[in-house]
Design a protein that fits this description.
heterodimer; A: 379 residues; alpha+beta; 10 strands; B: 421 residues; two-stranded antiparallel ribbon; 12 helices; 49% helix; elongated
């Protein structure tokens, strides 16, 4: 009796050690079965991680594609007027790097033979980024060079020779740097660097086109900030672009969600089948433990702990693989990296552990009803 | 004996078969639905992208340069050349008639508008709203309501044969007009049926049925330009080549692909004295967006196939592993490894067939439900997919069973019967 207090701590640690050893040995001795169960969890967790990561990121990735459509916000001065001086820097401050703003100034000039032609002054470097769909044979590099719309070119400079334009008595001599094809009004215009344009006509920009990045509420917020920065101007969304973008994004996301749900369900089913088989397969262990006097709680705890650890290890491995898969899809399909989302980890982890526990409890309920003797006799 | 073995095994162990069968059916259903969605998503997103508006513009060939700033036409209205309104139904007579979603003619004219005591000059844009047309006994409806779905009208759209008009939002604010009011254009009274919001220059204009604008201009049957909205195939290297420099075989491939360029080529031939240009902003960007989404769905379909294959294999492996006793018994009674394996493979094949059929129809329903709830349109599963899916189900089931069957067959029957696995 007096020895009991000193033995008890040792026994307790022994019990824990035994529990852990059983957990570990069980998986080591039957490496094949444990590995296949783990593999199922890893694959399911990887697929779930990749799908969820894609689902979160796809909107941002597709938005960058949609920005290739050009401006989604237009700032226009009152008809017949120019924007106030310093409007562009103020718009750029309001944007704070969330997009590109490009100024445009327009006049109706006349060609050498007196026919009207629209001349536009803009910042060539920014317009090149804003309107990536412009098909241009050669961009102007310096002062005195112009970009000719394909239809305008046939009128003013059919052989690519230098030409003159005049406006209100002032004239300008320009070299043709290249032609521009868009299929729309731009084809009939002559674009020249804004500095040359203002020096020639004295007209300041009347329009600022903005390609702003972000979700619909973010764009609305940007519009408000821009409107506050340029009082007196009309700031309007390019509804055509915004609406189509919203529709396509929404539908793509819903499709992706449906796909994610289906795939995750299938993967969970795979885990359920494998783990159920794994536990059923070990009914002899169960029977021996029961025959040796283990309580039902202990056995349940043992199988639950096994299932949970497989779920947890599988989830972590699967998360790493899934992040890799998502990154590969991002590079292969969007030519952009998809950043790993840590926010996905808890749901994947919890999901795996819960499915694993569920798969272990189902066969446990079956086994509990059976007498150990029957199992040990092999029936 | 062999068929009876398989048949009895199915009849007696229904519960065990059920799990594997359900797994196969589910896996096949998911695979079918995903393949159907992935093959249809291009068309569906293409339809959605049409809400960007027209991707082709028809103008008169002999036209002078456009003088247009910020969507406002500054060219003298009678200047330049016109297209004939009567030629337009020919668009629906071309090879690509089924790809043309809609088209809308435009005729901008200037008119004077009496507002209170002062007279203003405004732009009146003549167009079709939803005009009923017929070509070759086929009737169809087209106009800005199809080509420009982002035009929003508060009130009602005017009828194409009426003299009712829409007033742009900003102009209506300036004039203080509401739907149902009357305005006087060039001295003629017109009823305002609605206020138009477009986010573009039309908000400061009046949009009227085409005959109204033609009458103001004094040129019946004239049209300045036509916007065409067509379903196209994304551009690739072939699309951008000049048809004049192609070999005959290449030209045939080019003209049989619905590239925006080849549709433009056909339309230009169909409409006399016209010039048809793809609107690059819409045409080229549409292609990249479409490619990205299609690529994404393809990769996801692969993931779905992988997940279903794994689920089926896992279920099959489980089903067979549970039956080592039977295998042991068969072997103890003298069955050759080959016979035992063939019994199980026959069972797997039967299971794959049943699960595959159920899964295929379940998947078709699933695809239809996805199509209806997300795209408001049908997603049809190609019947040709049926044998493909069945084959795939059989393959995956076999592959999943093979390892388990091999292991079970090579297991010593003595241990199997003693159940010492």
């Amino acid at each position: 009796m007096s020895a009991t207090p000193s033995i008890r701590p040792a026994r307790r640690s022994g019990k824990h050690g035994m529990f852990l050893r059983m957990l570990l040995r069980a998986s080591l001795v039957r490496r094949g079965r444990a590995l296949s169960a783990l593999l199922a969890v890893v694959v399911a967790a990887a697929v779930a991680t990749a799908m969820l990561n894609l689902y979160v990121e796809v909107q941002a990735k597709l938005r960058t594609e949609f920005r290739k459509y050009g401006a989604n916000i237009v700032v226009v001065a009152k008809p017949g007027q120019s924007l106030p001086a310093g409007a562009l820097p103020r718009v750029q401050t309001a944007l704070a790097g969330r997009g590109i703003a490009v100024p445009f100034a327009y006049v109706v000039a006349s060609t050498a033979d007196g026919s009207p032609i629209v001349a536009a002054g803009t910042d060539m470097e920014s317009v090149r980024r804003l309107d990536s769909w412009w098909s241009v044979s050669g961009w102007p590099h310096g002062s005195g060079e112009a970009l000719l719309g394909s239809r305008a070119a046939t009128v003013v400079s059919p052989q690519g020779q230098p030409f003159d334009l005049s406006f209100h008595g002032g004239s300008i001599h320009l070299a043709a740097a290249g032609t521009l094809t868009t299929g729309a009004a731009e084809d009939s215009r002559v674009y020249l660097p804004l500095k040359d344009f203002t020096a020639w006509t004295g007209v300041e920009p009347s329009t600022i086109e903005i390609a702003a990045n972000g979700s619909a509420p973010q764009i609305t917020a940007i519009m408000k900030q821009v409107a506050a920065a340029v009082p007196g101007a009309v700031v309007r969304p390019v509804r055509q672009i915004m609406e189509a973008e919203g529709r396509v994004l929404g539908k793509t996301r819903s499709t992706l969600l449906a796909a994610a749900v289906l795939i995750i369900l299938t993967a969970a089913l795979c885990v359920l089948a494998t783990l159920t088989a794994w536990v059923l397969d070990r009914r002899r262990d169960f029977a021996i433990m029961k025959a040796l006097g283990a309580s039902e709680r202990l056995i349940s705890g043992f199988f639950a702990a096994e299932a949970a650890s497989i779920g947890a290890i599988g989830a972590l491995l699967g998360y790493a693989i899934g992040i890799g898969a998502a990154a590969w899809i991002g590079r292969a399909n969007f030519q952009a990296s998809i950043s790993p989302r840590l926010s996905v980890l808890p749901s994947v982890f919890l999901g795996s552990v819960v499915v694993a526990l569920l798969s272990a409890t189902l066969p446990m309920a079956l086994l509990r009803r059976v007498q150990p003797a029957t199992i040990l006799r092999g029936e | 004996m062999f068929p009876r073995l398989v048949f009895e095994s199915f009849r007696r162990q229904r519960r065990r078969k059920l799990l594997a069968g359900v797994a196969i059916a589910l896996g096949v259903a998911v695979a079918t639905a995903m393949i159907a969605v992935a093959t249809n998503i291009g068309d569906k997103i293409n339809q959605e992208l049409r809400s960007y508006g027209a991707n082709l513009l028809i103008t008169p060939q002999a036209d002078t340069l456009d003088v247009e700033i910020g969507g406002v036409d500054l060219k003298p209205p009678s200047d330049g050349a016109f297209l004939k309104e009567a030629d337009l139904p020919r668009i629906k007579g071309t090879f690509w008639k089924n790809n043309v979603v809609g088209f809308a003619p435009m005729l901008p004219v200037r008119a004077s508008l009496v507002a209170g005591t002062q007279t203003d000059s405004v732009e009146v844009l003549g167009t079709w709203f939803a005009r009923q047309l017929a070509y070759d006994h086929e009737s169809f409806v087209t106009g800005v309501r199809t080509t420009n779905p982002w035009w929003k009208v508060s009130g009602a759209w005017p009828a194409d044969d009426s003299s009712d008009v829409l007033v742009g939002r900003e102009l209506a604010e300036k004039l203080g007009r509401r739907p149902g009011d009357r305005i006087e254009i060039n001295g003629q009274p017109h009823r305002v049926t609605g206020i138009l919001a477009t986010g573009g220059a039309e908000e400061e204009q009046i949009v009227a049925p085409l005959p109204v604008a033609q009458q103001i201009l004094g040129r019946p049957g004239a049209v300045r330009k036509v916007f065409v909205s067509a379903l196209t195939k994304p551009e690739d290297a072939l699309a951008l080549r000049d048809p004049k420099t192609m070999s005959p075989a290449m030209l045939e491939k080019w003209s049989c692909s619905p590239y925006v360029q080849s549709i433009a080529y056909v339309l230009q031939k169909a409409i006399p004295h016209s010039r048809v240009e793809p609107i690059r902003q819409v045409a080229s960007t549409e292609g990249t967006v479409l490619e990205r989404i299609k690529g994404l769905m393809l990769l996801i379909t692969l993931a779905a196939l992988l997940a279903s294959a794994l689920a089926v294999s896992a279920a099959m492996a489980t089903a067979i592993f549970e039956r080592r006793n039977e295998i042991g018994l068969m072997k103890a009674l003298g069955a050759a490894n080959f016979t035992v394996a063939s019994v199980f493979f026959a069972e797997s094949a039967l299971l794959a067939l049943l699960g595959g059929i159920v899964g295929f129809f379940g998947g078709s329903l699933l695809a239809r439900e996805i199509g209806r709830s997300i795209f408001d349109s049908q997603i049809s599963v190609q019947p040709v997919l049926f044998p493909v899916i069945l084959g795939l189900a059989a393959l995956v089931t076999f592959a999943g069973s093979a390892v388990a069957i091999r292991r079970a067959v090579h297991f010593d029957p003595v241990y199997a019967l003693k159940a010492e696995a």
